[in-house]
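Hi U.,

Before I forget, here's the chain from the pilot set. I'm dumping it here mostly so it's searchable later in email.
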Amino acid sequence: METLRELSEVIHGPIGELPAALSRLLAPGAGHRALTILAADVDGGHRRGAGESSVLDQVPYLDLVEMRRRMSPGTVRRDTIVAEGAAEEVLLALSRNGALLALAGPTCDAEGERAVLDLWNIVSLRVQRFADTAPPSWLRLARMSAGERMEALTELADEYSTTLETVLAALRSRALDDAAARTTATGIAAAGLVHLRTVSDRVRTVGEEPVTTAFERLRDDLRPLVRYREIDMQFVEPPLDGRPLPGEVAHGARAVVRGTILAMLDDPEVGRVRVQWDCDGRNLLIGMRDDGEGGLSRESIQYQLVEDRIQALRGRIALDATPRWGTHLSIVIPLDPPHASAGLSADWALGAREQEILVRVASGLRNREIAAELTISENTVKFHLANVYRKLGVSSRAEATALYFAQARQDEPAAR
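Structure:
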């Protein structure tokens, strides 16, 4: 009973005090030096902690994200981190809704690990609830944060330029003969490209969620909504190879669908709701339809809340409500953050598809990955890429990427 009382205090207490309260709750059965929470929603992974801050604060955010990506929702595992220059064991619990709990220096057995996961599955609902009821301005900030992640890619231009300059210096050095110069330059270039690709991949994928996983979480979220009312929920799954969703888009889309269903259920005649997700490579496409009286109005408070969330994500919504024929909504949410197209000069005269391909080349994607994202063939990618090279006056991916980043940096002061 004491544990239940403390659990209730954790769930109903201020959100800012949740990490410390959770740490106290877990301490008797799962001692630890420090605790960190990596939320799944709102900003793609907000981080809060308690305990010895120097322990888990030293773990890079991207490392925590990668640990989470290696786990399945509703599981627990042990891993090792480097904190204060020494290896430290951590207990990782990933809740069913995708929030990560990390305990540094855990002192518990297998039964204690299961108890930690059970408690975290309950507490993480409070974290999600806070995210769901947050104002749309939170989503706007999340989209801005996503834009900053993309801008971080442009900062790689400095490292890229330094690598090229070092290569040229080695080739021009009079202290090295031709063979030694080529060997040195090749080694520098190879190491630099590996580093740039690794960092590029980590920045690009941070906070992303597979579209199929995001949709499955939506289905789980909707079960409580329809538990006490007989309603036929029909789900049309997104494509298995659909582009991963940024964390804030996945969260916002689920919140939009839940809010829309609440608006639809205001009509007592609704007995069936159909939810469909799709992806065209650049946008998440959401279709919703009910069999009610078609009385949903744009003036209703619930609809306006949904519309505010969509606008916060830079999306758009179309409502078709016909009396006695039901309501149909079409929602489009862009996947790329606001500044993802930075670095595209109008002087290049690139077509829409050529722009899409250049952005992805600069993000480190290969032709096969670009083809999969845009749902086109590799030969089509090669065709458009050849046109990009011609219009930019370059002859390789490296030159195109360097020019893209250079243009982005020129545009940066104006954007600010």
